[in-house]
Write a structure and sequence with these properties.
Largest sheet of chain A: none
Subcellular location (chain A): Cell membrane; Membrane
CATH architecture of chain B: Alpha-Beta Complex
Structural class of chain B: alpha+beta
Main location (chain A): membrane
Oligomer: heterodimer
Radius of gyration of chain A: 18 Å
CATH topology of chain B: Sulfite Oxidase, Chain A, domain 2
Cofactor (chain A): FMN; heme b
Number of helices of chain A: 9
Organism (chain A): Deinococcus aquaticus
Shape of chain A: globular
Largest interface: A-B, 52 and 50 residues
Order of helices and strands of chain A: HHHHHHHHH
Radius of gyration of chain B: 27 Å
Pfam families (chain A): Ferric_reduct
Structural class of chain A: mainly alpha
Chain lengths: 189, 347
């Protein structure tokens, strides 16, 4: 929540600069992507190090990411005078907006099923499969960022590289771990 | 902040706060935290993840701050009181009566990729630009090619004010009180030959003065151009000042082009060369993304940028958006230049 406080403080003190809405949009968008990437980094981090704490903050990071995505979208709506026709046109006509909007939609069911009760109701396997949508959402988020930038594509490419690296770690670590999981778990404790 | 080390770096923090609680349990506040529950372990876990979480978020916020520098920062010059007062002078024939964008905002929110891609980069780094001494080379299809000192060039013409709207292709706009002289006056003085059809402008190429040019974000030097009749239109302007004072570095010192009916990127800054040619110049943004930025770049609410609509714009200093006007509100003066042209193709 700290970044939101900083954002509000900056907005009130004028530190958001000459175009505060544009800056707030950019900031919340970056925060969304950063938080989603961090939440996706939890599992690879656990796989690599054996630590358990990343897994415990994973859900909070993901939910915060969703929160900032929603805020990002709200600022966008505010920016366009809550004109839903304009928004629909933007979503349908501009791949840049389509990608971002789809990512947000994909995050909604994930946020709704973030409670332990939802895990029970869905069953762990189905819940896990559903939450793999996060991979799609974060990739779309990075694409949205890439398409949104006018010229200097370095930052979005860094995000894309980190996301790709996290997928790779998952892929490499999951496969062999599947058979050896029981043994390794015993060894660790 | 996506640095994989970040979570590791956070590890010492929770341990440091946690250890004294578990070992000493002396301070009042600590006792208050610990007494209500009997089971210490989940509480410790909670504190630990809470601290971890706070640390992560703080690191994230900090990282973001570094990543996207505060635009509130500005040069001392920009902080100075604004001496420009519209009451001092009568409005000229092309002046808009709309509220002028304050000096502080006009000089701290700039696109000037020669300094960097962030809008706060130009104001932060403009100190490296040395606008004096400065020469401008004038060549091509002219009878009087020459290399001329900026002060001499400036002295050729009586300086005048022009309060123009400026519309950026990104969807924001300002009202700028420029100081300078009509481009037409300069071109006529150069005596173009009959072959001259276009005017090509080239900006300074110097990585010492323009640190952003070390990165090939765009192909340097920045090049822009106009058709000769566009350049001769009375609206086309060469600015050497802003808000009644010398043009600041971030706004394109010492000499820049202002064509108010076109998107801002046409207004090339820090010009060192003006060439009259018989060929349409290959401009920098056309080279970078020809499907997005055309040669004409006339402000046109009916032609969307591929990634965003151009129908509305935000006037800097306002929260809402306003409708974008065809030719940025200068249709009466310039629409005739494009008679018979399909401006969807010639965007």
């Amino acid at each position: 929540m700290l970044p939101v406080a900083v954002l509000v403080y900056d907005a009130l003190s004028g530190a958001l600069g000459a175009n505060p809405i544009q800056r707030a949009t950019l900031q919340t968008g970056l925060l969304t992507l950063a938080l989603l990437v961090l939440s996706l980094a939890c599992t690879p981090l656990r796989l690599l190090t054996g630590w358990t704490w990343p897994a415990r903050i994973r859900k909070t990071l993901g939910l915060l990411g969703f929160g900032y995505a929603a805020l990002h979208f709200l600022i966008y709506l505010f920016d366009h005078g809550f004109d839903l026709t304009l928004m629909t046109e933007d979503v349908l006509k501009r791949p840049f907006v389509t990608a971002g909007f789809t990512a947000l939609l994909l995050l909604v069911p994930l946020a709704l099923t973030s409670t332990p009760r939802a895990v029970k109701r869905l069953g762990f396997q189905r819940w896990t499969r559903l939450h793999q949508l996060a991979y799609v959402a974060v990739s779309l988020g990075a694409l949205h960022y890439y398409w949104g930038v006018k010229k200097d594509h370095t930052p979005p490419l860094i995000y894309a590289a980190v996301i790709a690296a996290l997928f790779l770690i998952r892929f490499l670590k999951r496969r062999p771990a599947r058979s050896a999981r029981a043994g390794s778990r015993a060894a660790k404790s | 902040m996506t640095d994989p080390r970040t979570p590791e770096d956070q590890t010492p923090t929770p341990q440091a706060t946690e250890t004294p609680i578990a070992e000493t349990q002396t301070s009042d506040s600590q006792r208050r935290i610990l007494t209500p529950g009997s089971d210490l372990n989940p509480r410790r876990e909670f504190l630990r993840s809470a601290a971890m979480f706070t640390g992560t978020v703080a690191a994230l916020g900090g990282g973001l701050e570094v990543l996207t520098r505060r635009p509130g920062l500005s040069s001392a010059e920009a902080q100075a009181a604004d001496p420009f007062s519209r009451a001092d002078r009568p409005l000229g024939p092309y002046d808009t009566k709309e509220k002028v964008t304050p000096y502080q905002q006009a000089t701290t929110y700039n696109n000037f990729y020669e300094f960097g891609t962030d809008k706060s980069d130009p104001a932060r780094l403009a100190g490296s630009l040395k606008p004096r001494p400065w020469t401008v080379r004038i060549d091509g299809e002219v009878r009087k090619p020459q290399t001329i000192d900026i002060d001499t060039l400036q002295s050729w013409f009586p300086l005048e004010d022009r309060i123009y709207r400026m519309r950026c292709v990104e969807g924001w706009s300002m009202v700028m009180p420029w100081l300078g002289f009509p481009l037409a006056a300069l071109i006529r003085r150069l005596e173009p030959t009959s072959k001259a059809k276009y005017v090509q402008f080239t900006a300074l190429l110097d990585t010492k003065q323009f640190p952003g040019q070390k990165q090939q974000v765009l192909k340097w030097p920045y090049v822009e151009g106009l058709r000769l009749d566009e350049a001769l239109n009375p609206l086309s302007f060469m600015a050497v000042g802003l808000h009644g004072r010398t043009l600041p570095g971030q706004n394109g010192a010492p000499l820049r082009l202002v064509v108010p009916w076109k998107y801002g990127f046409k207004n090339i800054k820090s010009i060192v060369r003006i060439t009259l040619t018989d060929k349409q110049p290959l401009t920098t943004w056309m080279q970078a993304a020809p499907q997005e930025y055309g040669f004409y770049a006339n402000v046109n609410p009916a032609v969307s940028h591929p990634r965003w609509s151009q129908a509305t714009e935000r006037r800097i200093g306002e929260l809402g958006r306003r409708k974008t006007l065809p030719f940025n509100g200068y249709a009466d003066e310039v629409a005739a230049l494009y008679k018979g042209m399909d401006l969807r193709k010639n965007f």
